[in-house]
Structures are given as C-alpha cells and as structure tokens.
Amino acid sequence: MNVPPRVTDRAYARLAEINAEAQPPKALRVAVEGGGCSGFQYDIRLDEPADDDIVLEKDGQKVLIDEISLPFLADATIDFTEELIGARFVIENPNASSSCGCGTSFAM
Questions:
Q1: How many helices (DSSP H) and strands (DSSP E) are in the chain?
Q2: What is the domain count for the chain?
Q3: Which Pfam families match (predicted)?
Q4: If exposure means fewest CB atoms within 10 Å of the residue's CB, which of 28, 40, 69, 85 is most exposed?
C-alpha cells in the first residue's frame, strides 16, 4: 500500500496565502511525469480536483495527488521554502535515488 505524502504546515500556510487572493480558490496539484535531466520530474501547479485524485486537506486547503503519481510520492514530504534564490514548493522524496541540482528532477 502506498502511503500518501505528508504536507507541512508551512506548505498549507503558503497555499492559504495564495488562495486568499484567488477566486475561486485552487488546490495545489503535485504530480510526477517522465522527463527532466534525471528521468522523472515534478509538476506542481494550481488546479481543480479530478474524480480520481487523492485529496490531502487541512483548514480548507487542498493538495491533490493523482493515482499514477502516488507510488512515486509515497512517504514524501511536500514543503514550502524561502531562500535567497527564491521561494517555492519542494518535495523531499525518500524514494528518489538521485536528483538534479535544481531539485525538480529525480531518478528512482
């Protein structure tokens, strides 16, 4: 059985900030696609829920994972980080055997 990823309070808080100005509010979709310099890449975007999505929710904020991406994201952590180079949602994925320098591409 695939354990859904964990979403940090910081990621939910940032999504709430984004949605404070969005009408209607959107969910954060985290998906895995083939491609990137390491074999797989994350697709993180605002989206509407689909019927077969796994929905992780806290305080009305929703994170969506499609069934195909779930095995790649099992036990991962979805977080939000702010650094000198910018702010972004990040994935800490224990299933990745390697990743590229930018953190958006990984291998399994």
A1: 2, 9
A2: 1
A3: Fe-S_biosyn
A4: 85
Whether pLDDT at 35 is above 80: no
Identity (one letter) of the amino acid at 78? I
* C-alpha–C-alpha distance, residues 18 and 45, integer Å: 12
Going by the DSSP 8-state scheme, the letter that residue 97 receives in this structure is S
Percentage of residues in the chain having pLDDT higher than 70: 84
Q: Which two tokens stand for residue 99?
A: 């990743």
Token couple for 32: 């895995």
pTM: 0.85
Q: Is residue 24 part of a domain?
A: yes
Residue 76 tokens read as 């991962």
Per-residue tokens: 66: 């499609």
Domain that holds residue 78: 6-107
Strands 77-83 vs 6-7: parallel, antiparallel or unpaired: parallel
- The CATH number linked to 101 is 2.60.300.12
Whether 1 maps to a domain, the answer reads no
Q: Which residues are within 8 A (CB) of 4 and not within 5 positions of it... i.e. 6 or more apart? A: 54, 56, 65, 70, 73, 74
